């Protein structure tokens, strides 16, 4: 637990949250700003700041619960789509530095997450970037 972390305080019950699920490893609760109705956060109960620090098996478990949440949101809220979004560092829109996955119901023209407007890159660029990544895996 990080005593300055807002999500650790939610896990500890020191701050209120609208919980939908919890077990010994994760907590699922409503995001404060409901970008669309049902906008949910899945967090590990242990404090890890971001994807760089959380262990692989914990990432897997949070992802499994995220998948369950996505299917349940689809059934219960009947959105046209669902995004799972995980931000790391301020440049990537992270504002709370406790690992979390957003699960966001989506609707046509809801104007959220208007990203990936870039045009297609050349095969040379794609191959060079794949090689650069490969060297680090
Ligand atoms: P991110 O940008 O990925 O770090 O998103 C963090 C989200 O956390 C942000 O959309 C709002 C949400 N949030 C911040 N403080 C609280 C809180 O006290 N309660 C709840 N439920 N959500 C919070």
TrEMBL record:
Top-level taxon of the source organism: Bacteria
A Gene Ontology molecular function term of the record: catalytic activity
Active site: 100 (tele-amp-histidine intermediate)
Gene Ontology terms: biological process: nucleotide metabolic process
InterPro entries: HINT, Histidine_triad_CS, Histidine_triad_HIT, HIT-like, HIT-like_sf
Residue ranges of the motif Histidine triad motif: 98-102
CDD domains for this protein: HINT_subgroup
Domain HIT: 6-113
Protein name: HIT family protein
Species per Swiss-Prot/TrEMBL record: Candidatus Chlorohelix allophototropha
